[in-house]
Amino acid sequence: MAALSATVLRNLSDRAYDKRKAAALEIESRVRDLVGAAGRHENDEEFRIDQVRELYDSAKSARSDIDKILSTLAKDYAMSAQSNFRKGGLIGLAAAALGLAHEAHLYLDVLLPPVLACFTDQDGRVRYYACEALYNMAKVSRTKLLEKFNVIFEGLCRLCADADQGVKNASHLLDKLLIDIVDESPSFPLDSFITVFVAHLALRNPLARNFLLGWSVALLKHPGVDLISHTPQVLEGYLSMLSDPSPEIKRQADAVL
């Protein structure tokens, strides 16, 4: 049996959203079945010696099919030169992440790069679907996603000031989910993140500043994060916000300080 049927692959790049969505639902179901099959074979301790090879081969085949599906969605679709293929690839990756469920974090090195690359796509709908895909990945990976937080944060800071209102709305929902995930994590990789954060504090865009101040509040509230110890690094960025033309940004910056 092929990892994905020809019909699914064809519909995934169709101009009609309904066909792409139907293909995505099949991908989610297929990936979920493969994860279940691999898990059953890998965890089955009640077997005869003559079943060992069969069980091993079945689990290996299921894992191989998952790899093929993700590779196809990432390389042939999400990274395609054709926008409909990119849209379909992102919808497919979002669906695959849901199908992978608790195992999604094991595949982040494959799932994330094409999604983050699409954050800078010229097509607003592609950027929107990239947000949606990352939202699904974050939803199932939860705190394990924090290992990739720096690159995700950089992309999200760019999208919060996107010219497309739909993209801005989607990035806002993603932002809220990531703050919730950070809140539920007992720790946060601040030492590796602070350099990225300080660099972005120099941004002048009011939407970006609002985004950064929101994260400042979230990090200051986190019991496992000592942002105060990095005051010499972040102080200049906050002080510059006190002279921002927006009264609301001035107020937020003053509250953080």
UniProtKB/TrEMBL annotation:
Instruction: Tell me which InterPro entries the record gives.
Output: ARM-like (IPR011989), ARM-type_fold (IPR016024), HEAT_type_2 (IPR021133), Vac14 (IPR026825)
Tell me which domain of life the UniProt entry assigns to the organism this sequence originates from.
Answer: Eukaryota
BP-aspect Gene Ontology terms: phosphatidylinositol biosynthetic process
A GO CC annotation given for this chain: endosome membrane
Query: Which parts of the chain are HEAT repeats?
Result: 111-149
Pfam annotation, one family: Vac14_Fab1_bd
Name of the featured protein? Vacuolar protein 14 C-terminal Fig4-binding domain-containing protein
The protein's organism comes out as Hemiselmis andersenii
